[in-house]
């Protein structure tokens, strides 16, 4: 009998409260904190140990990126929503992952293999909604945490996890977001840090926290961005946003504009951890999709003790909502700003992996 796949279990705020007291939650938070510390003061270009496990993960990500070439975006004229070719890409990725894991991690136990495959495929977005958000990014962290918990990754790998593996994952996601016009997973958009990601800002602020000259306000300096964005994740994220939205950060990303007024990167870095716990790990609409399995377990949750009549829950496209309450994560579909930036005046598709984008006024 095949092991059960990791599955979502959090349905209510009470469930989330119990999770936040669990060993899995504390291990997850500590892992993010440890990775932040490993990135502190280190630019992407700094030398770091790349173990065989690190090399295997990087090769695995290369193969996942190669699949995007096999599944080009299909003509989707005048649409600014997700490109349906993403579903073919996702299905191919899911079908190939077992062989890829056996290739790069041949000694994995079967039950661990199931957990790792599930977290990794869920790291690349939602097949049905063709969207992506901080919850999917969290799945990639869970994938790495699982590798750490089963001793494939060691503490000595942590700098390379951030500077090599996570950085490569974000670069890959920008290819996927650009090629398939993934929609933001949620309707906050402009009010968040970014349409898609959180952790490049958290790790990126840590990278910059010891820099002698650069300050948070430096994100408004085009010369600084050009000179340093390849070395610092935070600045690379700003460059990507600017490539898609022509309005200033004050209008396109007001939270980032506000943060740029903080005096030091160290304070930004400290605030990012608090914000991550509150705005990602502390939100039911995001955490209702968090997957629990053998490596990241949870005990019985309050909602699982109630009868179906007491819950009064409804299902919608795999999401669970309290009766009569619409979740932030799946209300109004949010068009891709990347799609808008790539549509030509004639409405022709210009979604090319790694290609240039034509910025349009943010709307």
UniProtKB/TrEMBL annotation:
Assigned EC number: 5.2.1.8
Organism, scientific name: Lipomyces starkeyi NRRL Y-11557
Name of the molecule in the record: Serine/threonine-protein phosphatase 2A activator
Organism classification: Eukaryota, Fungi, Dikarya, Ascomycota, Saccharomycotina
Family, similarity comment: Belongs to the PTPA-type PPIase family.
Its job: PPIases accelerate the folding of proteins. It catalyzes the cis-trans isomerization of proline imidic peptide bonds in oligopeptides.
Molecular functions (GO terms): peptidyl-prolyl cis-trans isomerase activity; protein tyrosine phosphatase activator activity
Subcellular location per the Swiss-Prot or TrEMBL entry: Cytoplasm
Family matches, as Gene3D superfamilies: 1.20.120.1150
